[in-house]
Amino acid sequence: FALRHVADLRSTFGEFLRVLKPGGRLVILEINRPRSPAAYGLMKFYLKRLVPCLTRMTTSNRSAQSLMDYHWDTIDRCVAPEEILSALEAAGFVQVTRQATLTLFNEYRATKPA
The sheet that has 105-111: what strands, in order across it? Predict the structure, then answer.
């Protein structure tokens, strides 16, 4: 769950491609922002308000609360699935696929050409 921290996906995927052996497989797990306004609002409330508050109450730790605030902020800026698929293909991967679970959690698979 780190692609939202990567500045240049194509370059990063190019490096992944370089170090994989021919026929090697890349598997990436990533989360994406909900597309539905209702799901987005619910997830934002849960991760931006409820989780940081509960974290602060249960740990009495301001840093832990800040970390949970930051977690939502990064999810809010997630890379769209279409961008990830396009960058994988542009980097030279083949058999690029995405499988979504609950429309939020994504498994991307790609293969380095033999």
Answer: 25-31, 105-111, 94-101
Residues 17 and 112: their CA atoms lie apart, in Å, by 6
Query: What are the helix and strand counts (H, E) for the chain?
Result: 5, 3
Q: What is the C-alpha separation between 63 and 69, in angstroms, rounded?
A: 10
Q: Which ranges of the chain have pLDDT less than 70?
A: none
Length of the chain: 114
Report pTM.
0.81
Pairing label, strands 94-101, 25-31 = unpaired
Report the alpha-carbon distance of residue 31 to residue 102 in Å, rounded: 10
Q: Which amino acid is at 60?
A: S
Tell me, what DSSP letter sits at residue 23? T
The DSSP bridge partners found for residue 109 are 27, 97
The reported pLDDT for the residue numbered 31 is 87
Distance between CA atoms of residues 75 and 71, nearest Å? 6
> Rounded distance, CA 23 to CA 8, Å?
24
